[in-house]
Design the sequence.
C-alpha cells in the first residue's frame, strides 16, 4: 500500500525545519511552536492530512529515531495532524516490519492507547469527512470489507475493526499459530518487499536478549490492547456494529480469536487479561440490545443474566418452547392467508426480510432460524387440515406457502450469502487463494435444519389430499437408496397398490423435493438416517404405461387422455413446464388452448417445485407480442380470445389469485389484464368464437372475466369510508389501478440491477417472453374513463342524463331488458333522473340487438340504471323482488357490471340517504329463521376470545332492517347458484357485502349472514365467523379486550384451559370451523385479531394500547404464580426474586415473547406508518410520563423487565418495518434524524443505538456516531 507524500514549497520548508530540529535534538515543544507559526502563515488548516503523510513518511524508515517520534507525538497532541490518519499510516508501515523494528511497534501501540479511543474529538472536528476519506484511501477499507456505503461513520467502524484485527493477526504470527487457522497465512502483509534489513536495529548485532524481550513483550501488549478495545464501552459497541454488518469477516475474526485464546502463551502469561475474559468479551452481544435499568442493583442484574441470557436462542419460557422465538413468522404466515387482502408485494420478499430481521435480532444460528421457519410453515398447514368451507383461501394456499414460498425464502438467504462470499473472494486484495468458496454456512445449516425436522412427527403428517403425493416422494427416495434408476414416468404409473409397502411419505419428503428442485439440496438427502423406511418392500414389476408428463417429454402428441392427465397432475420439473409453455406459444390454436388448460391446472395449484415458473408463464401468455407480419387494423389480441378466456377462468379461483399474490405477481398480472380489458371492452360482440365444449364466446364474456379479475386485485370491495378512516395509511398508497401500475413499472425498471435480482434471474426460465415496457393509465383511455366515473360516484351523487346521447339510449335499453318481464317501460323508471325517455324497446330480440355495443359503453350507463332502479323501488314503482331479478338479468347479460353494482351500492350506503327496509319475508327476504341462532353463535365466538361486548344484545323484538342499497345487493347475491360458473362472480360480491355490512350499524352483519346461511348452509361457520370479526369495526373497547386476550393467551396467563399453556398454539389455535361434535369450536384470539384488524376504522390508538398491554404483561410475568404474602416476603429479601421462586431467566424469555407479539401486531396492523407514529409520538410520550409501580410489585425487577421489554419491542418494530438489509426499499425511507436525534433527545440512547445497529450498513455509520457522542 503506497503512502502519498505531501509536496509543495510549504511542505518542503516544514521538512527542512524538522530535519534541522532533528539534527539539533531540539525540544519538541519548540519545534511545535515554530511549526505552528509556519503553517499559520501559509494558511494551512489544522489538523492537516498532508502533515500526517509527511511526518510518517519521514520517520519510516530513514529517520526512525526517538526525537522524530517525539515530534510526531507532539504534533498529535497539539492537533496539528489527525491522530487516526497517523495511526492508519503507521499501521501499514510498522506492523509488517515489527520483527525488524520492535521499538517502532511498541511506540505505535503506545500511540494507539493514547489516541485510538479519543473518537469524540474526531467526529466533532471540522475535517471529519476528509480525514476518514484519507484513511480509506490509505487502507482501502471499502474494498477489503466489500461494503459499498462510504459514509464517514461506517468507515470509522471498518477502521476500528481493521486495527484490532491487524493486532490479532500479528499476534498469531508472532506465536507461530497461523498454521491453526483455515487460511494458514497472515491476512495482512507481513514484510514489505523493498525493506532494507541492514538498518541500525535490524542487523545481526540487534538479535540480543533485549531485542527478544522487546519482541515477545510486544505480543503480550498487542493482546492486551485487543482486550481494551473489546472492554471499552464505546469501541466494543462499534465492534458490535462490525459484527452486525460484516458477518463473514467477523466470523473469521472470531475464529482467529478462538485460536489465540486456546493456544497463546503470551495471553496466558498476561497479568491483565485471561483467555476466558477475552472470549467472554466477544460473546456479550447483548450489550447493545439490553438496557440496564437504573433501579436494579448490579447483583440482581447478574443474577438475571446467570439464569438466562437475553439473546439465548434456546431459552425456555412457561408453556412455550424455543419456537416461540419465531412467533412473528407464525403471525405473518397466518395473516397472509387472509383472502380479503391481495398484496402488491410478494410474500417471498416480505418473509425473507422478516426471517433475516429475526435472525439478526435474536442472534441465532441459521440452522435454528431455518428450523423455526419450517416449523411455522408446517403449523400453518396443520391449522388448515379441517377448516370450514367458504370463499377464502384454503389448503392449496397454505401448501404454496410451505412448499414454494418458504423454499424460495431459504434460497434467497443461501444464495445471497454464497454470492457475497464469491464477491469478497474476487474483491479482496489480500486473498491469495485460487479456489473460490461456493458453499456457504447457510446451506449447511439448511441441511441440518431439515434433518432435525424428523423430530416433529405430528407436524409432518400430511393432509389427506396430499398423502399420495407424499408417498410418491418417499417412494422416489426408496428407489434411489435401493439402487433402482427409474424415470418420472414410473411414479406416474404407480397406483396405491404399486407403492412400496410402508413407504410412509410425509411433509418432510415434499419439502426436500422442493429444495432439490431449487438446487438447495441434492439426492444425497435420500441417504439421511431415517429419511426412508429401510424395511419397505420394493415392487419388482414396473406398472403399465399411462399418459403423463413423461409421455409428453417423449414427444407424444396432446391427445384428450394426455391433456386430462396433465391437467390433473402437476409438472415436477422446469423442462416439463417449459415444454407446455412452448406449445402455448408456438402450437396450433387447439394446442394453445389445451396448453393453457394444463398450465392453469394442477401445475399452478400444486406444482410446488415449479410454481413460481407457472405464474410467470401464465402472466406472460396474457401479453403475447405483436406478430412480426401482423398488419390488421384491430388489435392482435382479439384473435386470442378463446385462449385468453381459458387462462382467465383458470386463474380466477380464490386459491389461484392468492397464489399469484404470494408470488408477488399481482402488479404484473394487473398490467397484463388492463390491455385485455381495454381491447375487448372496446369492441361490439358481433363476432363470436365456438369453444371445444360448444359454448359461444363473445367479447363481452372475455371482457367480463378479465375485468372482474382485475377488480379483485385491488381494494375495490371496501366501502369508501375506509379510505378516510384508516389514517395510518399514507394517501395514495391504496392498491388502486394507478398504484398497481406504479409498483409494476418500478419493479421492471429496477429489475436486474440489484444483486438479489441477478440471483433471481438465474432461477427463471430462459424461455419466458415477458414485456419490460412501462405502461400507464393513459395507455388505457376507456379504463381510465371508467375509473374516473367510479371515483365520481364515490364522491358525489349522479348528475342528470342528457337526452338523446348514446349513454341515455343505452340506459333506456338496459332498463327495458331488466324489467320487460313485468311490463315496466323505461320512461316510468327514468323519470326521476332523466326527465323521460324518447324511445322504448319492442321486444327481447330488439333489446339484445340494441345492446350489441362495446362493454365500456354499457358500464358507462350502468350507474344511471342502478340509480333509476333504486329510486323506482324506493317510490314503489317496482317491487323488491323485481329489483333483484332485474339486477340479476343485468349481471347475467354483462357480468362486468357487478363491479359497478358493488361500487355504486357501496357509495350509496355510505352516503346514508336511503331509508332502511324491513327484511320481512314478503317484500324482501327474511333472515328470521336463522337470525337468533347466528347472533348466539357470534356471541359465543366473541366470548371465547375473552371479549365482552354488551352491545351485541339486540333485544329480540327489533325488526330486521337494512339500508335499501345493501338490501338490494344481498338480494342479488342470494339469487346466484353456488357453482363454478357463478363462484368467480360471487367472490367479487361476497367480500364487498362483508366490508359494507361491517360498516353499517349492528345488527346488519348478522342479518346478512343469516340470509346467506339459508342459501349455503355449509358456509355457516365461515359466515358466522366473518360476522363476528365485524364487531371490532364498531367497538374500540372490544379491540383492546381482544389485544389483551392475545397477550394473556400467548404468555399462558389466561384462565382459559385452551390457552393455559401459552405460546403459538394458544394464540392461533386450530383456525376455525366445526372441529368438534355439537357445533363450531372456539376460535383462538390471534386468529380473530388477524381476520378483524383490517375492519378496525381508526388504528392509530393501537400504539398506546399495545405499549400499555406490554408493560401490563411484564407486571403479570414478574408476579405470576406468587401470592401477595410471598410477594411481601420477597420484598424484604436482599435481592428480591431469586432462584426457586420465579426464574428471572424464564421471565426474560416471556418478556421477549410478549415484546415480539406486540411488535408483530403493530407491523401487521399499520405497517410502516404505525411504526413511525410509535417512535415519533407514542414512545417519547410514554418515557416522559411518570409510571409508578403498583403496590406490591417487585419494583426493581419490574423496572428492569419493563425497560428490556420496551427496548426489545422497539428494536423489533423498527427492524420489521425497515429491515436489516441496507439495499431494501424500506431501509432507504428510514429517516436517520428520527432515529438518532429523536430518540436521544428523550434520553433513550440505548433504543436509538439498537435500532440503528440493526438497520444495516446504511445506518451503521449513524449508529457509530451516536455511540461516540453519547459515550454509550
Sequence:
Amino acid at each position: 500500500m503506497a503512502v502519498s507524500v505531501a509536496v509543495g514549497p510549504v511542505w518542503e520548508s516544514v521538512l527542512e525545519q524538522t530535519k534541522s530540529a532533528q539534527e539539533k535534538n531540539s525540544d519538541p515543544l519548540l519545534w511545535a511552536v515554530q511549526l505552528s507559526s509556519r503553517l499559520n502563515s501559509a494558511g494551512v488548516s489544522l489538523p492537516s492530512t498532508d502533515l500526517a503523510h509527511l511526518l510518517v513518511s519521514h520517520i519510516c524508515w530513514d529517520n526512525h529515531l526517538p526525537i522524530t517520534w517525539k515530534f510526531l507525538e507532539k504534533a498529535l497532541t497539539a492537533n496539528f495532524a489527525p491522530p487516526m490518519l497517523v495511526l492508519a499510516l503507521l499501521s501499514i508501515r510498522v506492523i509488517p516490519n515489527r520483527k525488524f523494528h520492535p521499538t517502532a511497534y511498541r511506540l505505535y501501540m503506545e500511540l494507539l492507547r493514547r489516541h485510538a479511543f479519543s473518537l469524540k474529538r474526531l467526529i466533532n472536528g471540522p475535517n471529519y469527512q476528509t480525514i476518514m476519506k484519507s484513511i480509506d484511501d490509505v487502507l482501502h477499507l471499502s474494498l477489503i470489507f466489500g461494503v459499498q456505503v462510504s459514509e464517514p461513520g461506517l468507515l470509522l467502524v471498518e477502521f476500528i475493526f481493521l486495527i484490532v484485527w491487524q493486532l490479532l493477526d500479528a499476534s498469531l504470527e508472532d506465536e507461530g499459530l497461523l498454521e491453526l487457522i483455515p487460511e494458514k497465512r497472515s491476512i495482512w502483509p507481513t514484510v514489505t518487499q523493498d525493506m532494507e534489513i541492514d538498518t541500525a536495529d535490524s542487523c545481526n548485532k540487534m538479535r540480543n536478549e533485549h531485542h527478544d524481550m522487546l519482541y515477545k513483550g510486544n505480543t503480550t501488549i498487542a493482546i492486551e490492547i485487543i482486550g481494551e478495545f473489546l472492554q471499552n464501552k464505546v469501541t466494543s459497541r462499534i465492534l458490535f456494529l462490525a459484527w452486525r454488518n460484516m458477518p463473514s469477516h467477523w466470523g473469521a475474526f472470531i475464529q482467529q480469536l478462538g485460536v489465540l485464546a486456546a493456544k497463546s502463551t503470551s495471553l496466558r502469561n498476561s497479568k491483565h487479561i485471561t483467555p476466558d475474559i477475552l472470549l467472554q468479551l466477544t460473546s456479550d452481544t447483548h450489550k447493545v440490545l439490553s438496557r440496564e435499568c437504573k433501579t436494579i442493583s448490579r447483583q440482581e442484574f447478574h443474577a438475571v443474566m446467570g439464569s438466562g441470557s437475553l439473546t439465548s436462542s434456546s431459552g425456555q419460557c412457561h408453556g412455550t418452547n424455543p419456537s416461540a422465538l419465531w412467533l412473528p413468522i407464525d403471525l405473518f404466515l397466518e395473516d397472509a392467508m387472509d383472502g380479503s387482502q391481495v398484496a402488491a408485494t410478494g410474500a417471498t420478499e416480505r418473509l425473507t426480510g422478516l426471517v433475516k430481521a429475526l435472525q439478526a435480532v435474536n442472534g441465532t444460528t441459521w440452522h435454528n432460524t431455518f428450523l423455526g421457519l419450517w416449523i411455522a410453515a408446517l403449523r400453518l398447514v396443520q391449522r388448515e387440515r379441517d377448516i370450514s368451507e367458504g370463499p377464502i383461501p384454503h389448503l392449496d394456499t397454505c401448501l404454496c406457502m410451505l412448499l414454494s414460498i418458504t423454499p424460495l425464502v431459504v434460497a434467497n438467504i443461501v444464495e445471497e450469502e454464497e454470492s457475497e462470499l464469491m464477491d469478497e473472494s474476487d474483491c479482496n486484495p489480500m486473498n491469495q487463494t485460487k479456489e473460490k468458496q461456493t458453499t456457504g454456512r447457510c446451506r449447511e445449516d439448511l441441511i441440518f435444519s431439515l434433518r432435525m425436522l424428523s423430530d416433529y412427527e405430528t407436524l409432518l403428517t400430511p393432509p389427506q389430499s396430499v398423502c399420495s403425493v407424499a408417498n410418491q416422494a418417499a417412494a422416489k427416495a426408496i428407489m434411489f437408496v435401493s439402487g433402482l434408476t427409474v424415470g418420472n414416468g414410473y411414479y406416474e404409473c404407480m397406483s396405491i397398490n404399486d407403492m412400496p409397502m410402508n413407504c410412509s411419505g410425509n411433509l418432510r419428503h415434499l419439502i426436500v423435493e422442493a429444495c432439490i428442485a431449487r438446487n438447495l439440496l441434492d439426492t444425497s438427502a435420500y441417504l439421511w438416517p431415517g429419511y426412508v423406511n429401510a424395511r419397505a418392500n420394493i415392487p419388482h414389476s414396473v406398472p403399465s404405461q399411462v399418459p403423463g408428463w413423461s409421455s409428453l417429454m417423449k414427444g407424444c402428441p396432446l391427445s384428450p387422455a394426455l391433456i386430462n392427465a396433465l391437467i390433473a397432475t402437476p409438472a415436477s420439473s422446469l423442462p416439463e413446464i417449459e415444454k407446455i409453455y412452448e406449445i402455448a406459444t408456438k402450437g396450433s390454436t387447439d394446442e394453445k388452448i389445451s396448453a393453457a388448460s394444463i398450465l392453469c391446472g394442477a401445475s399452478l395449484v400444486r406444482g410446488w417445485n415449479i410454481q413460481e415458473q407457472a405464474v410467470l408463464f401464465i402472466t406472460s401468455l396474457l401479453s403475447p407480442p405483436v406478430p412480426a407480419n401482423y398488419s390488421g387494423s384491430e388489435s392482435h389480441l382479439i384473435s386470442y380470445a378463446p385462449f385468453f378466456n381459458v387462462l382467465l377462468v383458470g386463474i380466477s379461483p380464490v386459491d389461484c389469485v392468492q397464489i399469484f399474490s404470494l408470488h408477488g405477481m399481482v402488479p404484473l398480472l394487473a398490467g397484463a389484464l388492463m390491455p385485455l380489458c381495454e381491447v375487448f371492452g372496446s369492441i361490439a360482440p358481433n363476432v363470436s368464437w365456438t369453444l371445444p365444449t360448444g359454448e359461444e364466446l363473445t367479447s363481452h364474456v372475455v371482457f367480463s372475466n378479465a375485468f372482474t379479475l382485475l377488480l379483485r386485485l385491488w381494494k375495490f370491495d371496501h366501502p369508501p369510508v375506509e379510505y378516510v378512516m384508516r389514517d395510518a395509511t399514507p394517501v395514495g398508497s391504496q392498491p388502486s389501478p394507478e398504484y398497481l401500475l406504479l409498483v409494476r413499472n418500478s419493479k421492471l425498471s429496477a429489475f436486474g440491477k440489484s444483486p438479489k435480482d441477478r440471483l433471481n434471474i438465474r432461477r427463471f426460465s430462459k424461455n419466458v417472453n415477458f414485456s419490460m415496457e412501462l405502461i400507464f393509465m393513459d395507455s388505457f383511455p376507456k379504463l381510465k374513463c371508467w375509473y374516473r366515473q367510479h371515483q365520481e360516484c364515490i364522491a358525489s351523487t349522479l348528475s342528470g342524463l342528457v337526452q338523446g346521447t348514446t349513454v341515455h339510449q343505452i340506459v333506456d335499453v338496459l332498463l327495458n331488458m331488466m324489467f320487460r318481464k313485468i311490463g315496466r317501460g323505461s320512461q316510468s323508471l327514468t323519470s326521476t333522473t332523466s326527465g323521460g325517455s324518447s324511445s322504448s324497446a319492442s321486444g327481447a330480440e330488439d333489446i339484445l340487438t340494441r345492446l350489441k355495443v362495446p362493454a365500456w359503453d354499457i358500464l358507462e350507463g350502468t350507474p344511471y340504471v342502478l340509480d333509476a332502479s333504486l329510486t323506482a323501488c324506493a317510490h314503489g314503482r317496482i317491487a323488491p323482488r323485481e329489483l333483484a331479478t332485474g339486477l340479476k338479468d343485468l349481471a347475467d347479460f354483462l357480468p362486468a357490471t357487478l363491479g359497478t353494482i358493488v361500487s355504486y351500492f357501496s357509495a350509496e350506503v355510505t352516503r346514508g340517504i336511503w331509508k332502511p327496509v324491513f327484511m320481512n319475508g314478503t317484500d324482501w327476504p327474511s333472515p328470521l329463521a336463522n337470525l337468533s341462532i347466528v347472533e348466539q353463535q357470534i356471541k359465543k365466538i366473541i366470548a371465547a376470545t375473552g371479549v365482552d361486548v354488551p352491545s351485541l344484545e339486540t333485544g329480540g323484538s327489533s325488526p330486521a332492517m337494512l339500508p335499501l342499497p345493501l338490501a338490494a345487493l344481498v338480494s342479488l347475491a342470494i339469487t346466484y347458484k353456488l357453482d363454478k360458473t357463478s363462484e368467480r362472480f360471487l367472490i367479487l360480491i361476497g367480500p364487498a357485502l362483508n366490508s359494507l355490512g361491517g360498516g353499517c350499524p349492528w345488527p346488519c352483519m348478522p342479518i346478512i349472514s343469516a340470509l346467506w346461511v339459508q342459501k349455503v348452509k355449509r358456509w355457516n361457520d365461515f359466515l358466522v365467523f366473518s360476522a363476528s370479526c365485524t364487531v371490532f369495526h364498531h367497538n374500540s373497547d372490544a379491540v383492546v379486550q381482544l389485544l389483551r386476550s392475545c397477550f394473556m393467551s400467548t404468555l399462558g396467563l389466561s384462565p382459559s384451559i385452551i390457552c393455559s399453556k401459552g405460546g403459538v398454539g394458544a394464540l392461533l389455535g386450530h383456525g376455525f370451523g366445526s372441529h368438534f361434535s355439537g357445533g363450531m369450536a372456539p376460535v383462538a384470539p390471534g386468529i380473530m385479531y388477524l381476520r378483524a384488524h383490517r375492519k378496525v376504522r381508526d388504528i392509530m390508538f393501537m400504539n398506546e394500547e399495545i405499549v400499555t398491554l406490554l408493560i401490563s404483561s411484564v407486571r403479570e410475568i414478574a408476579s405470576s404464580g406468587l401470592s401477595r404474602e410471598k410477594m411481601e416476603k420477597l420484598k424484604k429479601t436482599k435481592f428480591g426474586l431469586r432462584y426457586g421462586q420465579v426464574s428471572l431467566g424464564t421471565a426474560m424469555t416471556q418478556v421477549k415473547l410478549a415484546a415480539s407479539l406486540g411488535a408483530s401486531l403493530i407491523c401487521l396492523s399499520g405497517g410502516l406508518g404505525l411504526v413511525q407514529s410509535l417512535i415519533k409520538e407514542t414512545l417519547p410520550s410514554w418515557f416522559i410520563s411518570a409510571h409508578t409501580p403498583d403496590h406490591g410489585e417487585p419494583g426493581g425487577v419490574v423496572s428492569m423487565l419493563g425497560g428490556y421489554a420496551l427496548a426489545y419491542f422497539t428494536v423489533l418494530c423498527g427492524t420489521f418495518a425497515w429491515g436489516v438489509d441496507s439495499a431494501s426499499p424500506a431501509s432507504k425511507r428510514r429517516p436517520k434524524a428520527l432515529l438518532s436525534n429523536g430518540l436521544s433527545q428523550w434520553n433513550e440512547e440505548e433504543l436509538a443505538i439498537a435500532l440503528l445497529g440493526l438497520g444495516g450498513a446504511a445506518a451503521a455509520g449513524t449508529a457509530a456516531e451516536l455511540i461516540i457522542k453519547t459515550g454509550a
